[in-house]
Amino acid sequence: MSLTRDYLLYILAVLTAIAVITAYTTINHINKNLNNNLITLERKEKKLKLLELQYRNLKETVEKLGIKVLTSKEAIESVLSAADRLVKMYDGRIIRPLEKEDNLYSITVGFDYYPDSAEDLYRFISRLESSVSPIFTVERFELLQEEYGTVTHLEVKISQPFTEGK
Length: 166
Known about the structure:
The chain is α+β, with helices and mostly antiparallel strands. It has helices at about 1-65, 70-90, 120-130; strands spanning about 95-100, 105-115, 135-145, 150-160. It has 2 domains: about 1-65; about 70-160, 2-Layer Sandwich (Alpha-Beta Plaits). It is about 55% helix and about 25% strand.
């Protein structure tokens, strides 16, 4: 009888050890997952704080410089107005129609410009490139020497960022 009792105690001790080892392994695995998730959350928190700081700095810069943030409707009007001016002034044509990508409207206009001199061409392109609203980007530039003078063919992308909401 005592052998059966000792055998039962031995089996109970083994089962208890197995249960404790299983519980320890499970808890250890859960602890590692929680630590990994904590590290991930801390990284995301740091990234979010950095983005918030950048946003505040950008907002302060916009307010300090007096830059007007355009709505979607105002951005469309700005892009179309600039494109219309180029088409009318330089007998241009629309190369790519109005497109919306994220918070940016853009249109591409092609036209010929007849500069009086190299300085005139430089001033014209500088004026385009230095525009803040809308943004002009020269995508194609081609100089052609004709019998009546130099012809400059330009394709200009006109872009205007905007904000939605509020």
